[in-house]
Amino acid sequence: MRDDLYSHFRKLNQTYTVVHTSPSQCPYCSMQCTMLVHQERSPFTTRHVVSANKEDPVVHGKMCVKGIEAHVPAFDKSRLTTPLLRQNGQLVPVSWSEAMNWFATKVGALQQSGGTDAVGVYGGGSLTNEESYLLGKFARVALRTRFIDYNGRFCMSSAATAANLTFGIDRGLTNPLSDIPLAQCLILAGTNIADCQPTMMPYLRKAKANGAFIIAIDPRVTGTTRLADLHIQVKPGADAALVDGMLKVMLDEGLVDWSFVKNHTRGAKELIEHLATVRLDRVAEWTGVPEEQIVTAARAYGQAETGMVFTARGVEQHVNGVSNVRNLLNLVLLSGKIGKPGCGYGAVTGQGNGQGGREHGQKADQLPGYRLIEHPEHRRHIADIWGIKEAELPRKGVSAYEMFAAMQEKKLRGLIVMSSNPVVSAPNAHKVEEALRSLDLLVVVDMFLSETAELADLVLPAASHLEDEGTMTTLEGRVTLRTAAAIPPGLAKCDWQIIGLMAEALGKGSGFRFTKAEEIFNELRRASQGGLADYAGISYQRIQREKGVFWPCGSEEYPGIERLFEDGRFFHSDGKAVLYPAAHLLPLESPDADYPLTLTTGRVMHHYLSGTQTRRTPALLAKVPEPYLQIHPKTAKRVGLSDGAPARVMSRRGEIVLSVKVSQHIRPDTVFVPFHWGKEQCINRLTLPELDPQSRMPSFKACAIRVEPVAGKVCNQSDTLHGEERMLDEQAETCVGR
């Protein structure tokens, strides 16, 4: 009888009925896939599940493993639901009123003694356009500080700088994703799309089915390189030299579109003079790539009628990241493959709104609409919109990593961190932690008590993506609208509401009294009007009606530009793109006797950025529960490492212990570690803080290290290798979820 009752109870509890369905959007990568969130009830419990949106014009009902689970952190019991104030060394719950009174008093005291620049702002690429815009306005109007930057500096800054210098504009992809299947040749440089943007993979597979020749440039074998016809396993950091070799072949074999070069570019003379000094044998030596592969790649791209080049962090996160990207843009321009269907360039944005985040004022040197903070006319335009005098706008500040140096120099005494976790994501991470601990004021706005929030004096509870409405700009430059599907728990608030409360507390509330996100967007539209990133013609209603609108879009009658440069004009004053002889420098830390290997870092499919949300998602954490050291079998044998055993990984900045993953899918002179973990598992405790001189991007992708065994359990190497083969096959062929 008891068993029958239990069986009946279980059946009742497993019978769910959908009681509410809301549209939503994934918070993770720049594809920004849409979905439906269903609230379901049984007689005893409530749960939330998601299904793909088959009406999505970009991914057509596809989702990846992260997207399927993206709603889970929003309902996690460890969500922050009330402000927390540090008292007697402990974070204790307080009311919003108490939190804001304390905040205003502390900021006032610091600025009275140290000036308005005593307090800065550190933002994130997951904020909506409205919140990115408002955070920049808050820094410059409410705090009146020059110190503002965001974690997108660690993501897209080298590609953005290169595109601005070359094209005069930076908009992720110059073409819509639908152009990819039209390309006869695709170059994927330093981008692991299978792991990082899985729902983009169908476009690549369709191009391959159409006969495209795919070239992947990556030191590792990945799900992306497995799709390629040619995988070039370049040494980390040698990308500009590799492209020099390809350009040399194109020049020598008559694969340059001289008509396009003459009519639409400048700088060709200097580039050609530089290429005359290039020798393929030296390029092969510098890059570790056989000459025949360089020739094959150059011919495949140069001879194709259509072609596209994509870059990501693998070529960008170096001290010469801008030069790496600019040389790949030289490849595009010399071939004339730009401004036409199936011809263009794309920087594959990493964060959900990495594109919009830099367009509207989170970067140290930028104002809304991609205006420059040092440009007098740009300053006047924004000052008029904000109702202040142009002279009251601060000048430009410093980049994200340089802000931590300013803390150590006591120039910056307080920091507000919103939607970011720099203790995990910044290079030389233990120094970053020291800098944050040295502050007199650290305020963190987050959903969870992240590694950075644990250090804070005040933690403010933020809404999740399910609870916050606003626009996001995808890697295509398509502005989309994410609507709210739930109510924030407890006292948690949307980021834009929190910004408004902080401004009110500082006596600057008049410019921040918005009642809904759409009101902020309408102000953003006016602020961006006439700028490079012109959103003036985009409205919430239009986004919903057209399922996204491309910028630039200067009026509501204007369709927006899906494919840039179709008229042959670029965004420099003379209408021409700029060719540039790119320097190919060796990494700052080349391997030597003490540190004989090169460390490169990156992502895995099941985690996102610092892992604050994905490490709280059981289904994702179960797949990859901890970081690992990927190392070639020959190298592992030489240093005495066994698969599954612990290894000590050391650089000149620190050391950590990781489990070994012996793998044939990496260069013997290189090791790889994913960066999604903090504290004792944080690989960024070892990475280089040196910056690209133009983009101020840190060198995450190449530093010298050594490894040595630590006593521990040894696992079966062959099982792991076979498992890795299966995983890569899944990524390349079936990585897109339901």
Q: Which features does this protein show?
A:
disordered C terminus; 25 helices; 738 residues; single chain; six-stranded mixed sheet; alpha/beta; seven-stranded mixed sheet
Our measurement of the CA-to-CA distance between the termini, rounded to an integer number of angstroms, reads 41 Å
**Average pLDDT, all residues:** 93
Low-pLDDT segments, ≥5 res: 713-722, 732-738
Number of strands: 28
Strand line-up across the major sheet: 5-4-18-17-16-6-7
What is the count of DSSP helices, taking H or I runs of 4+ residues?
25
Rg, Cα atoms, Å: 25 Å
Q: Report helical residue fraction.
A: 25-40%
Class based on secondary structure composition and strand pairing: alpha/beta
Q: Could you describe the largest sheet, including whether it forms a barrel?
A: 7 strands, mixed
Percent range for β-strand residues: 15-25%
> How would you sum up the global shape?
globular
What does this 3D model show about the protein?
- The structure is a single chain.
- The protein is of the alpha/beta class and 738 residues long.
- The strands form 7 sheets. It has a 7-stranded mixed β-sheet, sandwiched between helices. A 6-stranded mixed β-sheet has the order 24-26-25-28-23-27.
- Helices cover 33% and strands 18% of the residues.
- Residues 713-722 and 732-738 have low confidence and may be disordered.
Question: How would you summarize what this structure contains?
Answer:
The chain has 738 residues and is α/β, with parallel strands linked by helices. It is built from 25 helices and 28 strands.
